[in-house]
Amino acid sequence: MRTDAWARFWHAPVAPHPVAACRILLGVFLFGYLLTFWPDVELSFSRQGVYRPVFVPDYAPAPPLAWALYLALLAASALFAAGVRTAFVAPVLFALFLHHWFLHLGAVRSAHDSLVLVCLAALTLGRLDGAWALAGRPAATVSAWPARVLALQSAALYFGAGIWKLPVPAWRSGEAIAGFLIGPDAGAPARWIASLGFPPSFYLVASWGVIAFELLMGPALFWRRTRRVAVALGVLFHVSIAVVLTLPEFLVAIALYPAFFAERPVHS
Amino acid sequence: MAADRSRVLEAARNVFALLFLYGNVALIVFGTGLVVPTPRFLLVAFNVFGVFTLHEEINREILVELRLAGTDEWIVHDASEYAPTIVWKRLERFQAHRDVHGPEAREAQRVLAEKIKARYNRLHPERPADRIRVSLQTWPRDARGYTVRREQDVRTELLYAD
Questions:
Q1: Which residues is A13 bridged to in the sheet?
Q2: 3-state DSSP call for residue B66?
Q3: Which residues of B touch A48 (CB under 8 A)?
Q4: pLDDT tens digit string along A16-52?
Q5: Where are the beta strands (DSSP E) in chain A?
Q6: What is the spatial distance between Cα A197 and Cα A138, in angstroms, rounded to a whole number?
Q7: Rounded distance between C-alpha atoms, residue A114 and residue A126, angstroms
Q8: What ipTM score was computed for the predicted complex, to two decimals?
Q9: Fewer CB near the last or first residue (10 Å), C or N of chain A?
Q10: Which residue has the higher pLDDT, B102 or A135?
Q11: Contacts of A160 in chain B (CB under 8 A)
């Protein structure tokens, strides 16, 4: 019985469009994100650069091969988004991203890179080209599995981020947000907000607002009645972070939202 | 044949799902101060929750100094030349936060410093360097800007010197 419930949850047939939307958004995000490394391919990913591999020996290639692998990664991201031969392209994209992660990206504990890794790993085991694919195999239904993983990861991301902030005194007092606005990576909008001289109570409310938002976001995305509002708030939240704190990397979280819409097709 | 493949795929998905659930729950619980036994690869893979939890009242930046070969002249380099990214990522990389709990951090700093020196010498063969120092500079934050108080209040801590 319990096994049936497990199988129903993970492997039920669902419409292919939500997973396809995740594939497109994630591929577009990856392409844009990876493009920012273009000026520094030799520096970041070749043996003539300044990098430190994590968990693996130093196997950095010579600059020409580093460029070839980087361009292959870009191409794989584009093909992935376009839905071309995804059964082949998705594992290749995962392997290429992993290569660059081991060599350079992984030395930084960046949540967005870890999120990309988990999502790509999950998507390699899913059917991604059932809809909206340039060279795909249209299908009425696909397994819910990749959508379930992405949705749960998205919910966990918000809930965990909220839980992790709770014990931090600066988050409970509001000082954390005030600090980020004048931090090293704060953009002009952040410094402008800081210059307005809001009282500490403003930052206190903002701080608890962020924590409440993160703790409630997962349930709100899963619940059909609140899902669309949650998506709108989530988009606003991540765009704000991208603009105010100059951290567009967390826009990747938006790519997971369509996964919450993966439900059984009406006719099944 | 197709049925066998389907069963293998479903088994792989089930294994992934179990690891996925365990990794996420273990890391979320970790944020409350409780430690659940977790393999390191899961800790690394699912370490996505510490977003914006670090609060500091100081600014930090990496300072790279190279001594020109055969002289006593040290030249200062902006660390962003070797890690052209946002500040916190540069600091993570140079302070080796991934390995902060052991000698691996110092080894990471040595590796990065040696690569900087090698890269500098490759790009400037006419003015090679024979020594390198990598330091961490800290100074108080100021709402007027990132570097406003860097000149008068800076403190410098040596991370690596050869």
A1: A143
A2: strand
A3: 119, 122
A4: 999 999 999 999 999 999 999 999 999 999 999 999 8
A5: 13-14, 142-143
A6: 56
A7: 19
A8: 0.90
A9: N
A10: A135
A11: 24, 27-28, 31, 48-49
